[in-house]
Amino acid sequence: MKEILQTNRLILRELTIEDSGFFYELNLNPNVIRYTGDRKFDSIKDARFFLENYNDYKLNGYGRWAVIDKTTKDFLGWCGLKYTKERDETDIGFRFFEQYWNKGYATESAKACLQYGFEKLKLEFVVGKVRTENMASIKVLEKLGLTYKKEFDFDGQKGLIYQIEKANTKKLHYL
């Protein structure tokens, strides 16, 4: 298991098949996946299959990462960058267990991911895609410095695309 980043409170590391139970539990909560377009896994075995076949690290050198509490070592959720070849773009995404919402974990981990993307991966821009009714995630994207670009079809629902460019990160205190 490869550690990627640390923040004041968090460790971000590559996902492993040992995270199967956490992944299964995370997607069981309808509140957690309400705005994602994803569905729950039918079993831990299905979550394990997903993780066994998750090859973003090999293909792109980065991906979604497990977010671990430094003190308790609890798996809080995931956060990270995802490259989409067809659009030649990288998006920032995050998903946390509901009991960890509104504690700043999404913002803290996503800031670290953006910094990593711009400094280490030399990305020129990062997008964030969100359904219009997902106000909590919109607030996180805006805190991160992403700005609204346009609407898009998010699995048959109205979605919004936010974006931040490397050139615009100078004003952000975390970069």
Feature tags:
single chain, 175 residues, alpha+beta, Aminopeptidase, 5-stranded antiparallel sheet, 6 helices, 29% helix, globular
Structure description:
GO terms for molecular function: acyltransferase activity, transferring groups other than amino-acyl groups. By secondary structure, this protein is of the alpha+beta class. Helix 1 (20-28) crosses helix 3. It has 6 helices and 8 strands. It has one domain (3-168): 3-Layer(aba) Sandwich (Aminopeptidase), CATH 3.40.630. A hairpin with a 2-residue loop joins strand 7 and strand 8 (157-165).
Summing up helix and strand content along with how strands pair, one would put the structural category as alpha+beta
Main sheet? 5 strands, antiparallel
Query: Judging from the principal axes of the Cα atoms, what is the shape?
Result: globular
**Count of individual domains:** 1
Task: Label the CATH architecture.
Answer: 3-Layer(aba) Sandwich
Q: Provide the CATH top-level class.
A: Alpha Beta
Order of helices and strands: EEHHHHEEEHEHEE
CATH superfamily: Gcn5-related N-acetyltransferase (GNAT)
Question: How is the largest sheet built, in terms of strand order?
Answer: 1-2-3-4-5
Number of strands: 8
Low-confidence stretches: none
- Could you say what the CATH topology is called? Aminopeptidase
